[in-house]
Amino acid sequence: MRILLSRTDxxxxxxxxxPAIASVRASFPDAHITMVTSPYNHVVMxxxxxxxxxxxxxxxxxxxxxxxxxxxxxxxxxxxxxxxDLQLVGATRAPIRAGYTYVRRWLARATAPLYVNxxxxxxxxxxxxxxxxxxxxxxxxEQLLDLAALAGAKQRIARLRLDVTAADxxxxxxxxxxxxVLHIGERWFADGSTLESTLALVGELRALGLPVVVSxxxxxxxxxxxxxxxxxGVAGELPFHQWAALFERARCVVTVDTGATHVASxxxxxxxxxxxxxxxRLNSQEWxxxxxxxxxxxxxxxxxxxxxxxxxxxxxxxxxxxxxG
Length: 325
Known about the structure:
- By secondary structure, the protein is an alpha/beta fold.
- It folds into 2 domains: about 1-150, Glycogen Phosphorylase B (Rossmann fold), CATH 3.40.50.2000; about 165-325, Glycogen Phosphorylase B (Rossmann fold, 3-Layer(aba) Sandwich), CATH 3.40.50.
- The protein has 13 helices and 12 strands.
- It has a 6-stranded parallel beta sheet, sandwiched between helices. A 6-stranded parallel beta sheet has the order 9-8-7-10-11-12, sandwiched between helices.
- Helix 1 (about 10-25) runs parallel beside helix 11 and helix 8 packs parallel to helix 13.
- The N and C termini lie far apart (about 45 Å).
């Protein structure tokens, strides 16, 4: 049996797909499984032995053309609700082609049967969640496990996977032990949060009695110097698995809603996530930390000093809760 899995979007979403991938492997232990990624998120699968072959979708090749290379496969699954992955899977013409889309993406729902013959519709929708605070949205991991089952995977493995090695851990051994790791992404500096407030947050977190180490997203390296002046350590542009190893040595990880959330979950660390004010009800259900102790806070709607002070206080209280266990 030959199986094709496709996920060509973000790093965090591919990490959330690893339980579904493991479930496919456990269900079809003798199959040859090919994973299609993008050059950007490929690193997540570099060491994953649930896959026999990892190939990148070239940016210059149309998904349908690329997918046609895999005609003769038995099962193909689009693990992302994107036209790119759906078209790629559809072009395989596999007897079983599974994918999913969202409840109110009407055009995608109408066109998806052109590509897949087993379609799952996710209940996730930002507007519906805002209108109905009681609306329950399954975590993306659970949705993807259900998608794998729809494709025929009878085993269910609900554990994120990243393969951190002793060499990765040695590479970050110079950072303080058991720190609070504050991951800096652009969302700390906009829409209800500011650079100045985030710098102040470092000092307030240090008052909990643990060192604070700051890791920086690629686009935030220009901010490393200001944080170096207030933190106990700043991690520059670490290789992906070393970055995961830094999170692994943390007492807790504090981040905005980004792929760092799922890296921290994959290495089993307690995690606090500051979600955007807008669409909080959806995002905090579908993309919360998975399988680890967590605290979720909502960024303020406005960036006035009183709101920023309250926001920092909520983060510090949440971090204390995670540290105390």
